[in-house]
Design goal:
The chain is of the alpha/beta class. The protein folds into two domains: 117 residues, Alpha-Beta Plaits (2-Layer Sandwich), CATH 3.30.70.340; 340 residues, 3-Layer(aba) Sandwich (Aminopeptidase), CATH 3.40.630. It has 17 helices and 14 strands. The strands form three sheets. It has an eight-stranded mixed beta sheet, sandwiched between helices. Strands 2-3-1-4 form a four-stranded antiparallel beta sheet, covered by helices on one side. A two-stranded antiparallel sheet has the order 9-10. The structure holds zinc ion. Zinc ion binds next to loops.
């Protein structure tokens, strides 16, 4: 494989780019054991001088691309209103799929991005999806024509897609909600309160196997709720599954809650592979951001903690804030950036709560899955750089088996590889951190689709996505018993 052009690194990093003897001594549903002393952060975190260095991409090209250092981005605010009661309107905004078969195309895209005419959503070796504000379309079209860059308009009015994405439920579904004791349907993207109420409902309804614990709070004070499903078998291995690290990736919490529902409601008839694992689910890692995508800006990605610049640039990319090789490639030190890494590793309450829970838990986690969208990738570490863990062959084989099961179940093709190799380096990811904790089967799963709807996936796809993903999860469960 050709080495990556450095410019690609800069471009793509903005793209969108996842046994308990002590626990099981307790009766399910009762308080979980207190935390052990929290492990010290990994060595990598304790090298401030090295980590403060400007990432090499910034100085690598003759073209002074100071993406991470240009603090004010006034034009970037055009579509970003700060008032909560005032939704960001994407009328006329477009998403184009751009072929990137030449380095010169990356340079052009970088230049346009620097001028805040476009932003990048997702991409790999052969294409990138770019988001274009309405007032920039003419300008960008001219540049692409002049430079002979081919593209396809995938979304010609983003607001229209947003309006159609999450229609109200019909009468039958509303009736079902009243009957079933909670409001989750998987026919709609639900607000956080529906998700949390659903988790509490299951704990109350199935106290022998389900329990819920608040492992911390978001910046704005919302609960970070983990639901555990366990048959109490002391030899069980444990799996941690999270979703919603990135606020706008709505299909992720929808999929994770589907797993929860499937296992909790059908536990008695589930396979032994599923029953003899302790499952831990955190469907919404970033509840403030998730709520904000419902009431403020559908395309918000980060959490909602104000940065050093106050309300002008809000939020940290939680998937750049974890403490394994934090501050390296593919993460920004600019608080206005969509991939802002935070002021230090685990500076954010959400990432800190996840890491403290996992590292101090009595559960012996054998797998960590973190669900994102979009692109249809099964990615294993490392993300921080183009490097592989010693057991990468195991991860690759199991990843490919999972992908095969997904394809058989839903006809959807996933690409399997290391995240840095298949996509681009991105440091501070939760997957790298989990792998660094010794959790063997660690994957970031980028759900559907490949760009037709991107983050704004219609609700009719929730159940198909969740079902094929569940087929993949069963392969992992089987592997843990091998
Ligand atoms: Zn994501």
């Amino acid at each position: 494989m050709e080495p990556w052009p450095r410019v690609f690194v800069l471009l793509a990093v903005t793209a969108a780019v996842l046994c308990t003897p002590l626990v099981n001594d307790l009766e399910p549903g009762k308080e979980w054991p207190p935390r052990n002393s929290v492990k010290q952060p990994l060595d990598e975190v304790n090298e401030p001088a090295k980590l403060q260095a400007i990432p090499e991409e910034e100085t690598a090209t003759g073209d002074p691309i100071n993406d991470n250092l240009d603090i004010p981005e006034p034009e970037a605010q055009i579509l970003t209103k700060t008032a909560f009661d005032d939704k960001v309107d994407y009328t006329g905004a477009q998403v184009w799929k751009v072929e990137t078969n030449k380095n010169s195309i990356w340079l052009t895209i970088m230049r346009l991005r620097r001028r805040n005419l476009i932003s990048t959503w997702a991409g790999n070796h052969s294409y990138v999806d770019v988001f274009i504000k309405p007032n920039a379309i003419e300008n960008v079209t001219r540049v692409f024509q002049r430079e002979n860059i081919s593209y396809e308009v995938v979304i010609d009015d983003l607001q229209k897609r947003i309006n159609e994405e999450n229609p109200p439920l019909d009468e039958n579904d509303i009736e079902l909600q009243d009957r079933q004791g909670h409001r989750m349907t998987w026919k709609q993207y639900h607000r956080l309160s529906d998700i949390h109420d659903f988790m509490d409902y299951l704990a109350k309804t199935y106290p022998a196997i389900v329990s819920v614990k608040t492992i911390g709070h978001s910046y704005e004070g919302r609960d970070l709720k983990v639901l555990r499903i366990s048959n109490g078998n002391p030899t069980n291995k444990a799996v941690f599954i999270d979703g919603g690290i990135h606020a706008r990736e709505w299909i992720s919490p929808a999929t994770v809650t589907y797993f929860i529902n499937q296992f909790a409601e059908n536990f008695d008839v589930e396979s032994d592979d599923i029953k003899n694992i302790d499952w831990y689910f955190l469907p919404v890692v970033n509840p403030d951001g998730y709520e904000y995508t419902h009431v403020g800006d559908r395309l918000w990605r980060k959490n909602r903690k104000p940065g050093v610049l106050g309300r002008n640039c809000i939020g940290t990319d939680l998937n750049r804030n974890f403490g394994y090789r934090w501050g390296g490639k593919g993460a920004s030190s600019n608080p206005c950036s969509d991939i802002f890494r935070g002021s230090r590793a685990f500076s954010e309450p959400e990432s800190r709560a996840v890491s403290e829970f996992i590292s101090s838990s009595a559960a012996k986690f054998s797998a960590y899955l973190t669900y994102h969208s979009y692109g249809q990738y099964l990615l294993y570490p490392w993300g921080y750089d183009n490097a592989l863990p010693p057991d990468h062959r195991d991860l690759d084989v199991v990843g490919k088996n999972i992908a095969q099961a997904i394809r058989q179940a839903g006809g959807t093709t996933y690409q399997v590889g290391s995240s840095s190799g298949l996509l681009y380096p991105a440091s501070g990811g939760s997957d790298d951190w989990a792998k660094g904790q010794g959790i063997k089967y660690t994957y970031t799963i980028e759900l559907r689709d490949t760009g037709r709807y991107g983050f704004v996936l219609p609700t009719t796809q929730i159940i198909p996505v969740a079902q094929e993903s569940l087929a993949g999860l069963r392969v992992l469960a089987k592997q843990l018993h091998a």
